[in-house]
Amino acid sequence: MKQVENFDPRDKMFHFVLDQYSCYRRKTGICSLDDITIQELFNCESYIGECNESSIKYCRGMAKLFLDNKFSTPADIYLNKKCGHYCCSGGQHRVCVVAHLLKKGAQVKLNANFTEQEGSCRYCLIQEDYAQKEKRLSILVRILKIGEYKTIRNARQNYEEHECMYIL
């Protein structure tokens, strides 16, 4: 693990474990940081600990902490070399918030504990597993979308409700 003092998450594909209960964007389809200016964020209050992660205030409050240089806890970030995707074992909200702030032109810094791994990310491994299971089904079952095909599709859909890929 390598310590990186100014990790830039922009334009990187991240696998996040976020759902409607832990992310405003996953709950509403709109990121709470998309339609707000840096100046408006400077005027926000810090709500961390006072609201749940899917609240519109959560990431805005975290953004305020970064803008005020009051957030230095490093995110744990992994690069999966086989698929080229990044993932976090801690700090996925921090990574996303900093990417949004940097895109808006803010001068913020994300500290990271960074590790490179040889394999694929969890998202890709699970998607490969679902694809292999579907491939083993008969053509008739796949065409009619019945039985085991429906079971696999439902499992995949349930998985995608809780985990996602974002290009920051």
Automatic annotation (TrEMBL):
Top-rank taxon, per record: Bacteria
Full protein name: Uncharacterized protein
> From which organism does this entry originate?
Clostridium ljungdahlii
Q: What is the lineage of its organism?
A: Bacteria, Bacillati, Bacillota, Clostridia, Eubacteriales
